[in-house]
Structure formats: structure tokens, C-alpha cells
Amino acid sequence: MWITAVLNRYRAWRSYRRTVSELDALDRRELDDLGIGRWQIRSLARRTP
What we know:
The chain is mainly alpha-helical. The chain has one domain. The chain has helices at 2-24, 28-34, 41-46. The radius of gyration is 13 Å and the shape is elongated. It starts with a helix and ends with a helix.
């Protein structure tokens, strides 16, 4: 049971890190096209399932 909780937390962290990395790799113009400010990246990544 606790292993499942640990695995779920790990998967959520990996998803967060992947999202942050991908959005950080975009330049300002690409982020503007998506309607995202650089300051919003971590907040948006936290909401990623």
C-alpha cells in the first residue's frame, strides 16, 4: 500500500519535472504564442496530471 503511494508521488514528480523542462526549453515567442509567461511555468506544471 505505501509502495503505491510512493510510486504515485514519484510519477507526479517526474511529470512535473518533465513539464518544467519542456516549457523552459521554449523561447519567449513560443511561450507568448501559448499564452504562457515564463513566471507561470512552475505553477502550470504543478497542475499537470
